[in-house]
Amino acid sequence: QETVSDQVFPGDMIILASDGLLDMDAQEEGQWLSRVIGQAVVNNPQNMAEYLLDKVISISNGKIKDDITVMVAQVGEVA
Fold first, then answer.
1. Chain segment 53-64, per-residue pLDDT in tens
2. In terms of DSSP H, where are the helices of the chain?
3. Which residues lie across from 16 on neighbouring strands?
4. Which of 19, 42, 61, 76 could bridge to 47 as Cys pair (CB 3.0-4.6 Å)?
């Protein structure tokens, strides 16, 4: 088990995903996901989740091999 800490800022999105999403391209070991997220032009968590799922369907030609869960949260302003 690995623990990762990082600083987040208002507007940042935190993406939690199951291995069904992370393992879509085993040869790239998750690098494809970093690239796809970097190319995303979305403004809210719902759009990001839909964007990621659309990409998975496209990459897999609609033949998804594992169940996929994606949760996206956006960091808000501190009151």
1. 888 888 777 777
2. 19-22, 31-39, 45-59
3. 71
4. 42
